[in-house]
Amino acid sequence: MKTDASGLLTLAIETSCDDTAAAVLCGRHVIANGVASQLLDAKFGGVVPELASRQHMRHIIPVIRRTIQQAGVELKDIHQIAATYGPGLVGSLLVGLNTAQSLAYGLNIPIIPVNHVESHMLAVFLETETVEWPAVALVVSGGHTLLSEVEGIGRYRLAGETQDDAAGECFDKVARALGLMKSAEQTMGGPLIEKRAQNGNPDAFAFPRPMLRSNDVHFSFSGLKTALIQFISSHTEDFIRERMPDICASFQEAVVDVLVEKAMRACLRSGARSLILSGGVAANKRLTVKAAAAALALSIRMVAPSKKFCTDNAAMTGITAVLRGTPGIKGPGRIGPRPNLRLEDACEV
User: Fold this and answer.
1) pLDDT in tens, 285-295
2) Is the predicted pLDDT of residue 5 greater than 60, yes or no?
3) Cα gap 191→245, rounded to integer Å
4) More confident residue, 52 or 22
5) In what order do the strands lie in the sheet with 274-278?
6) How large a percentage of the chain has pLDDT more than 70?
7) Residue 79 contacts by C-beta under 8 Å, 6 or more apart in sequence?
8) 211 CB contacts (<8 Å, ≥6 apart)?
9) Residue 87: CB partners within 8 Å, gap ≥ 6?
10) How far is CA 76 from CA 80, 95, 106, 107, in A?
11) First CA to last CA across the chain, in angstroms?
12) What is the pLDDT of residues 94-119, one digit of tens each?
């Protein structure tokens, strides 16, 4: 087992939505990272909160047990437990929190509550030692699309956020409208659209760039989603099938253009030296390439997690707890779920 100089073993648990995840870290080093993904979403047209929480109850103990075994340690060796307490689905959060607090109480070790959005942002530190401050963080996923000005760990100021759909949510809904999500295994629209976009022309169709001309750094993707759905309904099935690569490439380009332009605008306004790109949509190669090029043109360093740490995972929960360095909380039932927790509240418990 590779160890960190600090030797502090952290068990991390993440259940904010529909993935049941656990990880073990030694200091800042991830020694095991496990996840159980649910396959119910496509059948029901999205995440069903009640079903998601039931699946978490089914998976969480086996996932924790496998992760502990993979790490080559025993539960009694763990020094602290980190668990996501918001934002997210309240039932899903409850399963992870209750499990974490029960384990912590039984082991007489502290539990550290972690803000899910903050953990996406700090996931870059799983593979990056340092980030030049100040920075701007673009967190873009199925549930969140926001820009934050970051002075350092724990020092955040919200600069802009989506006024309606998140970018990842828009990808999912458009993929479903295009008929790409055909099986229970296909629960994320982004990768499906990206795959088909590889052989398409991003300039084939002029889809709208919502709020791009506005002078702020907020987002809106519902208009783009509606435009795509209307486009699909106004053309034959044969046309959509034949032009699928061009449609996907043009749609993807519209989303990426908005995200990159708003991020660069936020960087210029704040004097950022770094751009942190994170969240599930950060796994999109077109987004990372265009964001990196735009940042380089402004002499800004872009940092992003590797693909495996972009989507929901417990390693990012653990690294956030480690970087925070807080003493944690002891005692049963001290922490409740905060489904509407905001990034600015990351210091609160």
Assistant:
1) 999 999 999 99
2) no
3) 13
4) 22
5) 155-161, 145-152, 135-140, 274-278, 301-303
6) 93
7) 8, 9, 10, 109
8) 163, 218, 219, 220, 258
9) 16, 115, 116, 117, 143, 144, 338, 339, 340, 341, 342
10) 10, 21, 10, 7
11) 33
12) 999 999 999 999 999 999 999 999 99
Contacts of residue 47, Cβ cutoff 8 Å, sequence gap at least 6 = 17, 18, 40, 41, 89
Tokens of 79: 């020094």
Confidence at residue 46, expressed as pLDDT on a 0 to 100 scale: 67
Q: What is the mean pLDDT of the chain?
A: 91
Q: pLDDT at position 6, please?
A: 63
- Interatomic CA distance for residues 215 and 23, integer angstroms: 41
